[in-house]
């Protein structure tokens, strides 16, 4: 507000809605008569206040006559009371209680920790560079399968069978779409799984 | 068992505390206190009477914020339930009405904040609240326009000002009642009310395309406005 009188805007806003005592209001009205800018502000406030009062008279739809919330509220109170009187669930928590007990709130933490550990293990495994082990036999892959990635090992164990699947045309294709070297040289799947796929995955039982 | 005269159980008409036909605020407050006391001792019917006394006013106030009758009824039910669960926390030396409305307003504002965080307002508010003209009413367009315009502007005002403006200018609570409902000093409420009215006025003029009225210091006189 630009008026020199301190808090003029606030005083006008209170007075225009009838929130100033009569003496104060009378003095404000006298001031408004002599101050052009305050008079404009007063008139603008009167217009917006009139709109608010018209909106206030348009009472929002409420409960239909004769209808009451009391029955519903008392029914819910009775249900709540009976639920509280009933024996508790094994966790000590009643489903009708408004707030879950701390044990319910904190119960997700072990699961979340387990999930986070699993994700970290997967990410670590994927990020580990796959160096071919000298002892890894290249013949584990079926004949004709792409050379790229063939014989790749994860800590000494072949992962060829982890990188391929059979597509609709019966071709063995790599699972990872970024390994394009497998595609053009994929061979038709002859219905016989490679020996490496039939062998038990021994590295799962190995300790690192 | 406490008994109640029918005059004690009339529904509140305007403002807080509820004034029935039997008398003014003091009588209504006494009646409330008796009902609350009975309810705290396990008399659910007494609480039912309190619900009957305040339900229409509470639904009306909540409707000013949520603009949905069914939602307002649900929130009012939750308010009464919460009030019943917290009856032991109620200070009997204070009035029941402001305490109840504080629970209702806080719950409504909490609901709106949660809904706003989920982005539901932007998705559903306009579609859900615009009303079609009712052929039974001669020409409802002006009414609908005014309602929507006022609501739109109110939604543009920050919550702490909007709440005071709605309670004072739309629901006609006094400043002291609003102070009790919002648990703030009355001076704070008056300052927020003035600020809210000025913000509403500027937005109203802007929406109407009129130049926003400001006070020019060069034109002001040296008259001193009184401190209220």
Describe this structure in words.
The complex is a heterodimer of chains A (208) and B (228). Chain A has helices at 8-16, 22-34, 36-57, 70-85, 102-106, 108-127, 195-198, and strands spanning 153-154, 157-158, 164-166, 172-174. Chain A has 208 residues and is mainly α. A two-stranded antiparallel ribbon of chain A has the order 1-2. A two-stranded antiparallel ribbon of chain A has the order 3-4. In chain A, helix 2 crosses helix 3. The radius of gyration of chain A is 39 Å and the shape is elongated. The two termini of chain A are 75 Å apart. Chain B is mostly helical and 228 residues long. Chain B has two domains: 7-129, Orthogonal Bundle (Rna Polymerase Sigma Factor, Chain: A), CATH 1.10.1740.10; 132-210, Arc Repressor Mutant, subunit A, CATH 1.10.10.10. Chain B has helices at residues 25-40, 44-66, 69-85, 96-117, 120-129, 141-156, 159-170, 175-182, 186-208. The model of chain B is unreliable at 1-15, 17-22, 121-135 and 220-228 (pLDDT under 50). Classes of the chains: A mainly alpha (208), B mainly alpha (228).
Short description:
Chain A has 208 residues and is mainly alpha-helical. Among the domains of chain A are: 8-55, no CATH class; 138-195, no CATH class. Chain A has helices at residues 8-16, 22-34, 36-57, 70-85, 102-106, 108-127, 195-198, and strands spanning 153-154, 157-158, 164-166, 172-174.
């Amino acid at each position: 507000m630009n008026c020199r009188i301190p808090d003029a805007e606030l005083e006008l806003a209170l007075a225009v809605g009838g929130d100033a005592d009569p003496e104060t209001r009378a003095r404000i009205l006298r001031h408004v008569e002599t101050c052009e800018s305050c008079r404009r502000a007063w008139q603008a406030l009167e217009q917006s206040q009139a709109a608010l009062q018209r909106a206030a008279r348009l009472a929002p739809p409420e409960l239909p006559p004769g209808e009451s919330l009391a029955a519903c509220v008392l029914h819910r109170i009775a249900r709540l009371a009976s639920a509280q009187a009933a024996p508790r669930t094994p966790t000590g928590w009643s489903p009708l209680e408004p707030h879950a007990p701390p044990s319910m709130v904190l119960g997700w933490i072990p699961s979340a920790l387990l999930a986070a550990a699993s994700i970290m293990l997967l990410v670590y495994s994927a990020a580990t560079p796959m160096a071919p082990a000298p002892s890894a036999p290249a013949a584990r892959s079926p004949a004709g399968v792409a050379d790229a990635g063939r014989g790749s090992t994860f800590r000494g164990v072949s992962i060829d069978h982890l990188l391929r699947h059979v597509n609709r045309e019966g071709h063995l294709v790599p699972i990872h779409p970024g390994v394009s070297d497998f595609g053009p040289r994929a061979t038709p799947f002859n219905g016989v799984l490679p020996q490496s796929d039939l062998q038990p995955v021994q590295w799962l039982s190995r300790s690192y | 068992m406490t008994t109640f005269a029918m005059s004690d159980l009339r529904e509140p008409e305007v403002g807080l505390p509820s004034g029935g036909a039997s008398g003014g605020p003091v009588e209504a407050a006494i009646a409330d206190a008796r009902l609350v006391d009975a309810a705290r001792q396990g008399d659910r019917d007494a609480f039912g009477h309190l619900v009957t006394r305040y339900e229409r006013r509470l639904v009306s106030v909540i409707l000013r914020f949520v603009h949905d009758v069914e939602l307002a009824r649900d929130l009012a039910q939750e308010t009464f339930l919460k009030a019943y669960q917290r009856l032991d926390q109620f200070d009997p030396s204070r009035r029941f009405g402001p305490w109840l409305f504080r629970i209702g307003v806080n719950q409504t504002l909490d609901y709106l904040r949660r809904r706003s965080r989920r982005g539901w307002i932007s998705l559903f508010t306009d579609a859900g609240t615009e009303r079609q003209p009712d052929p039974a009413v001669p020409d409802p367009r002006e009414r609908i326009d005014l309602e929507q315009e006022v609501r739109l502007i109110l939604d543009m005002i920050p919550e702490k000002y909007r709440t005071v403006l709605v309670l004072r200018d739309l629901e006609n609570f006094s400043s002291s009642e609003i102070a009790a409902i919002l648990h703030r000093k009355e001076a704070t409420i008056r300052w927020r009310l003035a600020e809210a009215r000025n913000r509403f006025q500027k937005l109203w003029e802007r929406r109407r395309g009129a130049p926003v009225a400001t006070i020019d210091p060069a034109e002001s006189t040296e008259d001193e406005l009184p401190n209220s």
